[in-house]
Specification:
The protein is an alpha+beta fold. It has seven helices and five strands. Helix content is 46%, strand content 17%. A five-stranded antiparallel β-sheet has the order 4-3-2-1-5. The termini are far apart.
Length: 180
């Protein structure tokens, strides 16, 4: 299935919602007017993989929020690749629609819960960790985010990855100062 006329992100999201309801499996390829490409892997209706501009998973999701699609194609089949750090499909669809995810917990207004929409929090965590751990910081950060959704717990998990205790304390201090 592909569209023959220009499309919008809203129409792509509507199509993804339909795939979710119908529990379809396959891969969607999306192109912009200037030939940027994104891919979405779907298994039994659930979004299991995202890629956009050499980014995968949650990082690709933040790029897709600002994507201006011109064309898409869906090919039924199975998605061979999965991104384990993705939020649930209804949350992804809400994020792409510009709405707060419905599965957000009642205490999500508190500053100790990570909001998946907050690219700023992810950026601060990854950039600050990179100061101490170098280029492996994004990978370590993604792993910690899969282990907990509580911001303070994630900060502790990341600090525990820093071998030097003095630097770990400094990391905690910098992150808390930047975020709070």
């Amino acid at each position: 299935m592909s569209n023959q006329q220009p499309t919008s992100l809203a129409s792509v999201v509507a199509q993804l919602q339909q795939f979710y309801q119908e529990k379809l499996s396959g891969n969607m390829t999306i192109l912009t007017q200037n030939r940027q490409m994104a891919r979405i892997g779907i298994m039994n209706g659930s979004i299991v993989a995202l890629s956009c501009a050499n980014k995968r998973g949650v990082e690709a999701l933040s790029l897709l929020q600002h994507f201006d699609p011109n064309w898409f194609q869906f090919i039924k089949g199975t998605s061979a690749i999965t991104d384990p750090d993705l939020p649930p499909t209804p949350d992804i669809l809400a994020i792409l629609s510009g709405v707060s995810p419905a599965s957000a917990s009642p205490d999500s207004a508190s500053n100790t819960t990570i909001d998946l929409l907050s690219q700023q929090v992810l950026t601060v965590l990854k950039a600050t960790l990179a100061e101490f751990m170098g280029p492996v910081a994004p990978m370590i950060c993604n792993k910690a985010l899969r282990q907990s959704s509580d911001l303070r717990a994630v900060i502790d998990l990341l600090a525990n990855q820093i071998p030097n205790r003095q630097q770990a304390v400094e990391f905690r201090s910098r992150v808390m100062q930047k975020l709070f």
